[in-house]
Amino acid sequence: xxxxxxxxxxxxxxxxxxxxxxLATAVVAEAQNRRVPSSQAELKLSYxxxxxxxxxxxxxxxxxRKVRQRRSPFFDDPWFRQFFGRGFGIPRERVQNSLGSGxxxxxxxxIVTNHHVIKGGGQAEVKVALxxxxxxxxxxxxxxxxxxxxxxxxxxxxxxxxxxxxxxNSDALEVGDLxxxxxxxxxxxxxxxxxxVSALARTRVGVSDYQFFIQTDAAINxxxxxxxxxxxxxxxxxxNTAIYSRTGGxxxxxxxxxxxxxxxxxxxxxxxxxxxxxxxxxxxxxxxxDIAESLGLDRPVGxxxxxxxxxxxxxRARLRPGDVIVTVDGKxxxxxxxxxxxxxxxxIGGRTALGVMRGGKSLTFDxxxxxxxxxxxxxxxxxxxxxxxxxxxxxxxxxxxxxxLQIDEDAYGVIVxxxxxxxxASIYNVVRRHDIxxxxxxxTVRSVKHLSQLVRxxxxxxxxxxxxxxxxxxxxxxx
Length: 479
Known about the structure:
By secondary structure, the chain is α+β, with helices and mostly antiparallel strands. The chain has four domains: 52-154, Trypsin-like serine proteases (Thrombin, subunit H, Beta Barrel), CATH 2.40.10.10; 170-271, Thrombin, subunit H; 282-368, Pdz3 Domain (Roll); 381-478, PDZ domain (Pdz3 Domain), CATH 2.30.42. The protein is built from twelve helices and 25 strands. The strands form four sheets. Strands 19, 20, 21, 22, 23, 24 and 25 form a seven-stranded antiparallel β-sheet that branches. It has a six-stranded antiparallel β-barrel with strand order 1-2-3-6-5-4. A six-stranded antiparallel barrel has the order 7-8-9-12-11-10. β15 (324-328) and β16 form a beta hairpin.
């Protein structure tokens, strides 16, 4: 064998021996790390102490309501009645049940759950079952569909003090934090699952108007809605509300409403009959890549001010179209949904600092946290008489009513709240819910009172102009 070949073979053998030795060392090190627990305490490492503390405050929510089955027009036909009898087609009531979870948030039995757990027509009977199997009736004290939250209270407690969960600051959560989800999935009974915070500020979930969710891989299933998401200190950080699933089961993508929003709704329930949100008074839009480039921003984030309402908090703070809101009290704003959440959870009272980019400069604006004014008063009424608007329920539109109805329009005018079925307004189909009545017979409509006077004027032909979803629509009734 040639000397050079021998030399190369020797080098290869040496390298192989070094690799084997390295792998052996790694295996030995890994084996040393996989050791038997050295103490009784290490054997007992568990979430059990947290669960024992928080589980009694998580309840099952049962809702029982009577609903009337729909009646077919065929039921009035005598031909059908001769075959099926006089009782054929009589509307019948049936009992509808729904199941979810809830969290006790005060010692006197105040419970927060999801709106979709207790929603529905008719008189609903609500019961809650505690972890110790006791059952109580409960009264609904606030429903807020916009946040998908509801607040109920145990009404037969007889002075009893209940276990409850304290709120944590959900803005302090970080991706990777450990969390526990507690609820009643599929009605099998109270269940605890563990996971981490997978993401924060999810804004494209689509289950409520306030798109700003905690995402977790802790298993959440049907029946978990309204249940607790707690941190390792046993404090409430969110209310479980939705899952992403193609089958109806958990795929490790669950969403919870941050407790800072929950706190706003609960506090509103304690002081009134609806949620009062701070009024901003500006229309916002997302910042696209093209908009970011045109404004000299390094990335497409923030909420672009499109229009500012005169006299609103945004107007008084001197924000103007073209401004890009990037922070609320130092917290980053990714898009208009994130701004809406950040601003709303500040509540009523005091002020908040908005970080704004304007003309390439970073500015700060101090904005008041005040409720939207109900000026003019809504003066709600149903129209009556011989005219095409008879049966339409109308009101004066104000910033407060616009905020309540989620109307992204000029916050003044006469708005249609609904149309009574079978009425003239329903038959002629000239107005729809949330239409803003602008003109009638070539006269500008100033208020509910003014419109009521205009419809008394006799006319063979009714010419109506309404603002519908931002567009002006002209309608004519009669010859």
